[in-house]
Design a protein that fits this description.
The chain is α+β, with helices and mostly antiparallel strands. The protein has 3 domains: about 280 residues, no CATH class; about 110 residues, no CATH class; about 60 residues, Arc Repressor Mutant, subunit A, CATH 1.10.10. The relative contact order is 0.09. The structure holds zinc ion.
Length: about 475
C-alpha cells in the first residue's frame, strides 16, 4: 500500500484596521521609519493595559460568517508565553480555548477554527563584517511597528491530501480576505503567511508531523508540500524514522531544510489573559450572526457562479475575481447596459483580451484610469450597433487608454465610423463616377483595376467611414446601369 499524505494549513493574516490590536498606535504596514508606530502598550511598559480592537474582532467574525463557521457566543484571550526579542511582553496575546470562530468550509476544505491574536515585532540581524574588530561585530535590531498588529489565524482540519488542493485553498482565502476588506493579504509582504503541516502514513493514523514555514508564494506552498511528501515517503521506505520538526523552504534550492525541533503546545503555558475582560459577543448587537452576515458583500464563489451564468469564460471569470479594476469596469458596464447579454459578452471579451493586452504592452502609452466605464460602455454599444468595426474599436480603445475621451468623437476624428446610410453611400458613389467617367468607362471595357481605383476614391469621399465591400457593390451596380 502506498503512503498517503495528510496536510493541514495554518494561515496568518494581518488585518487592515486603523489601529493596532490592543492600543491606539496606527496599524500601518507601509511605515518605513522604524519604531514610529509605538506606544507604552505595544512596547509592553509595566502598568499598561490592553483594550480590544472592535474592528479586528468584526473582521474575524465576517470571515467566519463567510465560510459558514459558528460565531462564538463567548470568547476570551489567552497568554501564550515564550521568550523572544520580538515579543516584548514575554508572551503573545492569542486565543486558545475559546476562538471567535469554530468550523466552516472554504474551497471544499474543512476549517477547524479562526482566532485573533497580535503580531510580533520585526527583528533584523546583521552579521559581523569580515575582518571587523570586536566592536563592529554582529548587530540585532528590533522594529516594534508591527508589534501588536491584529493578526488572524485560521487553522484547517488535516483533510488535505495533495499540494494542489492546498494551493487552491490558500488562493481562495486570499480572495476572500480581499473581498471582505479584512486584509491586503500579500504573501510577498508577509501580510498573509502560510504554514503547512505535512505527514505521510500507510494507514488511517497520522504520521510524524512536519511543519513547513517561510512559504511566501502560492507556488512555494505547492512545491514545499510536494517536496515534503516525497522526502517523507522516501525516508519511510528506506526505514529512516522521521522527527517532529519545523522546516523552512529554500526558494533557491527548491527544498525544505531543518529549522528546529517542534515544541508541543504545553510549552507555551497558555492561560487566560487577566487584563482583558471576557467577551460576551451575543450581548453586542452588531456582532450577532445575523448582523455580521448582513455586512457581507457578494462572496467570491457567488460572484463566480453569477459570471459563469452570464456565459463568461472561466479565465475571464478568475481574472475579474482577482482584479478589482477589471471587475468594477465590467460591473459598471453591465449595470449601465441594463444587463444586456450581448453588451456584457462584448465587454467581458474586450476587458479580458484587449484591455489586458494594453495594460501589459509597455509600448502602449496610457493609464488605466483613463478607461472610464461610461466611455467603455459607449464603445461596446457602437460595436453592437455596427458603428465601428471590431478593428476600429481596437484603435478607439487604444486612444481611450492613452488619453481618455469620448469614443464617438475619437471614432469620428479617426474616420472609423462606419456609415450604413445607403443614401449617403449611393451619393458618394454617384459623385465618384461623375468625376471619373473615363475610369468608369475603362471598367466597363473590362479593366478590373479601374474598379479598385473607384473604390479608393469613394472611401476617400466617405473619409474612410464607408464599408469598402458595400461601396464596391454599389459602384458595380451604378456602373452597370
Ligand atoms: Zn501601541
Amino acid at each position: 500500500m502506498a503512503y498517503r499524505p495528510t496536510i493541514g494549513l495554518e494561515v496568518h493574516a494581518e488585518l487592515t484596521t486603523r489601529t493596532k490590536m490592543f492600543c491606539d498606535s496606527p496599524n500601518n504596514p507601509d511605515e518605513a521609519r522604524p519604531n514610529a508606530n509605538v506606544c507604552p502598550v505595544c512596547l509592553a511598559h509595566p502598568g499598561t493595559l490592553p483594550t480590544v480592537n472592535k474592528q479586528a474582532v468584526a473582521h474575524v467574525l465576517r470571515v467566519g460568517s463567510a465560510v459558514g463557521g459558528t460565531l462564538a457566543d463567548y470568547s476570551e484571550f489567552d497568554r501564550k508565553s515564550y521568550f523572544y526579542p520580538d515579543i516584548p511582553k514575554g508572551y503573545q496575546i492569542s486565543q486558545y480555548a475559546y476562538p471567535l470562530v469554530a468550523g466552516g468550509t472554504l474551497a471544499g476544505v474543512a476549517i477547524t477554527r479562526v482566532h485573533l491574536e497580535e503580531d510580533t515585532a520585526r527583528s533584523s540581524h546583521r552579521s559581523p563584517r569580515r575582518g571587523a574588530s570586536h566592536d563592529e561585530g554582529a548587530v540585532s535590531l528590533v522594529d516594534f511597528n508591527r508589534a501588536g498588529v491584529p493578526l488572524m489565524e485560521l487553522v484547517t482540519d488535516p483533510v488535505i491530501h495533495d499540494a494542489e488542493t492546498a494551493g487552491k485553498f490558500a488562493r481562495e482565502l486570499q480572495l476572500l480576505l480581499r473581498t471582505l476588506g479584512a486584509s491586503h493579504a500579500n504573501l510577498e509582504k508577509g501580510e498573509m503567511r502560510i504554514e503547512a503541516n505535512i505527514s505521510v502514513s500507510k494507514d488511517d493514523t497520522f504520521g510524524t508531523k512536519v511543519e513547513v514555514k517561510n512559504l511566501n508564494s502560492f507556488r512555494s506552498v505547492e512545491r514545499a508540500i510536494a517536496y515534503e511528501i516525497d522526502r517523507q515517503t522516501k525516508a519511510l521506505e528506506e526505514g529512516v524514522a522521521l522527527v517532529q520538526e519545523t522546516r523552512g523552504w529554500d526558494e533557491g534550492k527548491q527544498q525544505t531544510f531543518q529549522k528546529r525541533f517542534k515544541e508541543g503546545s504545553a510549552d507555551y503555558r497558555y492561560f487566560p489573559e487577566p487584563d482583558i475582560p471576557k467577551m460576551k459577543l451575543s450581548e453586542v448587537p452588531e456582532f450577532s450572526a445575523d448582523a455580521i452576515a448582513a455586512t457581507l458583500p457578494e462572496l467570491p464563489w457567488d460572484r463566480r457562479a453569477r459570471y459563469a451564468a452570464l456565459g463568461l469564460k472561466a479565465d475571464a471569470v478568475e481574472m475579474f475575481l482577482n482584479d478589482g479594476f477589471m471587475a468594477s469596469l465590467f460591473e459598471e458596464v453591465a449595470e449601465g447596459a441594463g444587463n444586456d447579454a450581448e453588451i456584457m459578452r462584448l465587454a467581458a471579451n474586450y476587458i479580458a483580451s484587449d484591455i489586458v493586452g494594453l495594460l501589459a504592452d509597455n509600448a502602449a502609452a496610457g493609464n488605466r484610469e483613463n478607461l472610464k466605464a461610461a466611455s467603455f460602455l459607449a464603445l461596446m454599444q457602437m460595436i453592437k450597433e455596427g458603428t465601428v468595426s471590431s478593428r476600429g474599436a481596437k484603435d478607439v480603445l487604444r486612444e481611450l487608454y492613452a488619453s481618455g475621451g469620448d469614443p464617438a468623437s475619437i471614432a469620428k476624428a479617426k474616420g472609423l465610423v462606419q456609415v450604413h446610410d445607403e443614401e449617403a453611400l449611393a451619393k458618394a458613389v454617384r459623385d465618384v463616377i461623375g468625376a471619373n467617367q473615363a475610369v468608369a468607362d475603362e471598367y466597363r471595357a473590362g479593366k478590373e483595376a479601374s474598379l479598385q481605383f473607384l473604390v479608393g476614391q469613394a472611401m476617400k469621399a466617405m473619409k474612410g467611414a464607408g464599408n469598402p465591400g458595400k461601396l464596391k457593390e454599389l459602384l458595380i451596380r451604378e456602373i452597370s446601369k
